[in-house]
Amino acid sequence: MAVLIEAVIRAVIPDLVLLPRLHRVEVESDCVAGVRRHLAVAPLQIRAAYSVLSLVFLAYTLATTGRLPARLTRRQLLAALESFSRRWPVSIQAYERLSRALCLLNYFDHPRVLAGLGALGIAEHQAAFRSQRASGLQVEL
Fold this sequence. Notes:
The chain is an all-alpha fold. Helices cover 77% and strands 0% of the residues. It has one domain (2-109). It is elongated. The termini are far apart.
């Protein structure tokens, strides 16, 4: 199951920031670990539903491609995930949405992605906010 979740998360990670290959691998690994952490603390109903939907997606991918999701290329896996979401009711579409949402949360919080976007990291943003507040300036949120 962990291999399937890792494959899905690696497939849905966006390419919004051009990163060197080594940094991309680091971001992917950190996103996968972050999604696992989020799922570990999620309520039982969400964890159970995600696990069941992962198994359904595994069966769907095996039936449609004849291969395990971890053996597919990123493009093939994305196509299978989108096809899976389009063919089934909204409750099954939640699998793709939850995978993407958790992935994006971790992706846009990653220091390398923030640096690539030219954004301040959390610590830098807090320091800038506190210095503005201390100087009595109007602080924009």
